[in-house]
Amino acid sequence: MANTLLQVWILIATVTVFGPCTVAQPPSKPTNASQVLTKAMTYDFSQTSDLSDFEIQWGVDNIFVRDGMLQVVMDEFITAPTIVYSKEIPAGKIDVVMKAAAQSGVATALMLYETKGATVDAKDNSYPNDEIDIEIVGKDPFEVQTMFFRKGKRVAENIYSENKKLNVSTAEVFIHYGLELTNEYVKWYINHQEVRSYSSSPDKFPRDARFFRIGVWAGIGRESWAGPLDLTQGPFTAQIQSIMVTPYANGEASSSVPTGKTTASGDQVSTVQIESVPLYESLWNRLKSIVNANLGKLAESAKNFRPVQLV
């Protein structure tokens, strides 16, 4: 019996250790130039509550501006509120000043997707899209995860994901996050500090990610990654002070584009220290979470086990 239980949780750990993959539906390219952002824009929510440049994909009553901040609220009824920038950004930089949602099992995500939507392709039940992420899970609010997918697929584990450890909780202070995409590279930033860079390669580069999204979602079924979730403890809210979107003409960071305001007056960003999490440590921590979560389930199953009596 013990050997069987051991084999079960090893199998579970092997299958799920590499975490979640959240990707979008097959791409729909722009039909006219008006769909592409051509000048830098800043949205300072201490100065405006206008969300007309955004589309609320899910949770129209759960995404709003209040107290000088954009609030993205997840509760037991709306478990994946998502807001999308309406213009395409084929190349550029996104800057967000944000306090993440605080709760085990809740993920706060800043994403560049290939499409606006997030539904499955009905023809082959797949998500063949490019994606670039910054994700924070409430299980460990002191860690920021950076990752990307090429046509819905992970590349090697040491390439697709890197985690950064902070000395402050992402759920308690406002932090400046950045995503930058050009023809040559993807870069991730924390408080204006470049924390990761990945250079272009023909088959592994998420070049088609172009729609910016912010979401707070429940890691139901992914407790080994996000942590256990109790929806009755909600609501869970991510708060955004400002969003800055800067497009790059011709996919080059040095390109000259019409510029708008580059800082938001209401931003109050905390100073943080950033440390890279070694790959082996990240995988080991995830494996321990998986084992602990599933050992509890197996122990409960064993406790309730009743042998069958043959008549």
Structure description:
Residues 43-257 form the GH16 domain. This protein is of the alpha+beta class. It has one domain (43-262): Jelly Rolls (Sandwich), CATH 2.60.120. It is built from 4 helices and 16 strands. The protein has helices spanning 2-16, 157-160, 223-226, 279-303, and strands at 41-44, 54-58, 63-66, 69-74, 82-85, 92-99, 106-113, 131-137, 143-149, 161-166, 175-181, 185-190, 193-199, 211-218, 236-247, 274-277. Strands 1, 3, 4, 6, 11, 12, 13 and 15 form an 8-stranded antiparallel beta sheet that branches. Strand 3 and strand 4 (69-74) form a beta hairpin. Helix 1 crosses helix 4 (279-303). The radius of gyration is 21 Å and the shape is globular. The chain starts with a helix and ends in an 8-residue tail after the last helix.
Arithmetic mean pLDDT: 78
Largest sheet: 8 strands, antiparallel
- Helix-strand category: alpha+beta
* Approximate helicity band: 10-25%
**How many domains in all?**
1
Secondary-structure element pattern, one letter each = HEEEEEEEEEHEEEEEHEEH
Tell me what the CATH architecture is. Sandwich
CATH class: Mainly Beta
User: How big a fraction of the residues is strand?
Assistant: 25-35%
What is the count of helical runs?
4
Protein name: Transglycosylase
Keywords: Glycosidase, Hydrolase, Signal
GO molecular function: licheninase activity
Signal peptide: 1-24
